[in-house]
What does this fold into?
Amino acid sequence: MSYFAPRYGFVCDQVVNFEVVLANGTAVNANSTANSDLWFALKGGSNNFGIVTRFDLKVFQQGKIWGGTIYNPIETLPAQIQAFVGLNNATNYDTNGAMINTYGYSNQIGGWAVANLLVYTKRAVNPPVLRPFTDIQPQLLNTMRLTNMSDITSEQIRNSPSGMRQ
It folds into this structure.
């Protein structure tokens, strides 16, 4: 999955070519014109078709994004659900807005909390589509900022240390 999926599709949809070593030891390319059935299968089927030694992806230019994490106490759950429904409402759907929503127990605060990792994939501070989340109070932590994707990724990794992910 990707924050860019609403605009560009799944990451596997961006693969234009696989180099694959087949069971008989032959290296082949699989793309829309050569071995297209294998190309299609590798983009979402299984992993028993050979060993992928290379893949080529379509890329796109990406500037600054607005994102970060907001932690709220569990008592904000009704507002969280309302904001989630609004974000996914087909009438107002904004393909630049994305979020990962988690609920969990925090020893640091001594209770349950809601964590929203929010991203807007265009350079816009606190865009309307994410305001229902950013307006929820109280906030235990707010790291929202104008930044780049690698910074958001680093934050996400810091908040989910190895061995603690589910």
Remarks:
- The beta strands are 15-21, 27-31, 51-57, 65-73, 97-106, 111-120, 141-142, 145-147.
- The chain has a mean pLDDT of 91.
- The two ends are 16 Å apart (CA to CA).
- Residues 86 and 109 are 28 Å apart (CA to CA).
